[in-house]
Amino acid sequence: MIDIPEVYLIIFGLAVFSIISLWLNLRLWWTGRSKDREADSRVRGASVTRGLIAEQFAPFTKAFEKLGWDLQEFKFLGRPVDGVQFEEDEIIIVEFKTGNSPLSQKQRRIKELVERGKVSFKEVRF
User: Fewest CB within 10 angstroms: 52, 74, 76, 90, which?
Assistant: First the structure.
């Protein structure tokens, strides 16, 4: 027969084992989460890189040709907007997007300023 102190010792051992098991499982779960976040970050970064590369070549695509713009009159900026198209009677600020990517906050602000006519021309002489 088991006496009382041995029962306490067994219960204590099981409690310690359970706590260690829980700690190890939480650690594995957290490590897996951080690896998932890192992988997700890498995928998003690659997506952004592909978008930036696509923006460089956008003026040479069929979609650009369909707009009827003269390629020689497009000036690439990169940031905060992709470029400016100079037409005979219009100047167009251009932002290329791939997939479902939205305009950034800064790009939305630029679009709003253009729509409100808050665009000006400054001559700077040196």
Answer: 90
CA 8 to chain centroid, in Å, comes to: 56
Residue 56's nearest CA partner among 78, 71, 73 is 78
3-state percent helix, strand, coil for the chain, nearest multiple of 5 = 60, 10, 30
Output the CA angle 59-63-67, nearest 5 degrees: 85
The whole-angstrom distance between residue 6's C-alpha and the CA centroid of its chain comes to 59
Owner of token pair 């002489």 = 125
Is the pLDDT assigned to residue 32 strictly greater than 90? no
Exposure class string for 62-78: b at 16+ Cβ within 10 A, else e = eebeeeebeeeebeeee
Tokens of 2: 């088991």
